[in-house]
Fold:
Amino acid sequence: MKLMVRLALLCGGLAASLTASAQEQTTRIRGTIVSLNGDTLTVHRRSGDTVTVAIAAARIAAVRDIALTDITPGSFIGTAARKDPNGRLIAQEVVVFPEAERGTGEGHYAWDLGPSSTMTNANVDAVVNGTQGRDLHLSFKGGSNVVTVPATVPIVKFIPAARADLLPGKVVFVVARNGDAAMHFAGVRIVVEKDGVKPPM
Structure:
């Protein structure tokens, strides 16, 4: 009897965990701002459709261009990458997080910036000159990898932004949870174009 009770509790806990995990799944929205009306941001996505995002609880930021030389051992970065024919990870963009956000999204996982792209959010252990660019030696919980950064790749850092920056025509990258309708989302994080610098992620 005790064993059955324990199994029931275990199964119930597992089901609750799976439900919570499903609810916490996020969507990445890339597009151009159509309008901001109160707490509702309307975005025309690259895919051609238009969605709305509730932004009352969203964090808003922008990015600023920096040089690869500004990335040093100890920096915490995120980099979308793809594999070249030799299996090497080639960066598509690099974003430096502020120290207060160290650990954000840490790990190596699938991404949707392009076909078969990945994201690595990790600590920079070393920056080494390579034949195709500089190689970032990265480590994260459970693993490590090396990402080559070509000279043409956008390299940015997060900077503050506000609602006043959410202007029609500005490019945005939004991390959001599904809302109460198919085309309505709840914003978690918004990165908006500022001073001509578009979010590359």
